[in-house]
Amino acid sequence: MKKEYFTIGSLFLAGMILCFIAFIQCAALAPTKQLLITSMQPVVPENSELYSVSEDGALAYEEKGMKIVVKPMDDEKLNKMFPEISYKRDASTNPYTFGNWIDPELGYTPIRFTAFVVKVFNYTKPKINLDPRIAILQSGRGDKLYSYTRDQKEDADREIRSVEDVGSALNFESYYMKLRGSSGVERDRFEKRMGIVRQTLYVDGPVFKGDKKEGMLVFDPLDPGVKSIELVLKDFVFEFDATNWPKVKKDVVFKFSRELIKETAK
């Protein structure tokens, strides 16, 4: 009996040692967890008094009677906007990020979108307007991205509909319907995401005298190699005529330098 007990104990101990060795080898092969941080710094055009930079990194364009403020948003800022839904790993429902879910193959959280908060202030003009559906994000190497709309109808109604330029399904409804499962939990996650999109995305519509408007402009993620970008608010309407037709409109451009930083997670 004593010899049999010794044999079983030895086998058990040997098995534990093998398991421990296997665990160490897997840990060594697993990618190091990293933080992927997007840093965007505003660039003020030379010899221009129309642009200014605020302490929080926002870039402002101001003419007589109105102002536009654009602030780039990295994933950390976007998650802090919705903290109650952004830190649940793969159950996070922040529509603009992957929350704090970490891709097991990459070892970090991928960037889901490129996002900006845009504020339009109308101090003295009768009416001004920004149509977010025709906003463009251009990179220094020639990439051209178009903004996301809330749903399929807004996507179909945008003025720019060239397949070569826009592509297809640049709206959150289509994006998340493709990812939605058939369970009740998946449908609930879809509705939570769309609810936030409807509340926070910038939508077309005039800003009247004494009023302001705020919302998100969202684009596909930029290539890691992109170092500079231009956010172009195309055909911003500064003045309407008596028939409510745009009388004065022009593109307003916001430039930013960009750096993608990888840091080892603590």
Please describe what this structure looks like.
The chain has helices at 2-29, 75-81, 83-86, 152-157, 163-166, 172-179, 184-200; strands spanning 34-43, 51-53, 59-63, 66-73, 114-122, 127-129, 136-139, 144-146, 206-208, 212-219, 228-240, 246-264. With 266 residues, the protein is α+β, with helices and mostly antiparallel strands. The longest helix has 28 residues, at 2-29.
Which series of helices and strands comes N to C? HEEEEHHEEEEHHHHEEEE
- Overall geometry comes to globular
Helix content: 25-40%
What do the pLDDT scores average to?
86
Biggest sheet strand line-up: 1-12-11-7-8
Low-confidence stretches: 22-31
Radius of gyration from CA coordinates: 25 Å
In total, the number of strands is 12
| Estimated structural class | alpha+beta
Number of domains: 1
Keywords:
266 residues; alpha+beta; Immunoglobulin-like; five-stranded antiparallel beta sheet; 12 strands
Summarize the structure.
By secondary structure, the protein is of the alpha+beta class.
List the helices and strands and how they pair.
Layout: H1 2-29, E1 34-43, E2 51-53, E3 59-63, E4 66-73, H2 75-81, H3 83-86, E5 114-122, E6 127-129, E7 136-139, E8 144-146, H4 152-157, H5 163-166, H6 172-179, H7 184-200, E9 206-208, E10 212-219, E11 228-240, E12 246-264
Antiparallel strand pairs: 1-12, 2-3, 3-4, 4-5, 5-10, 6-9, 7-8, 7-11, 11-12
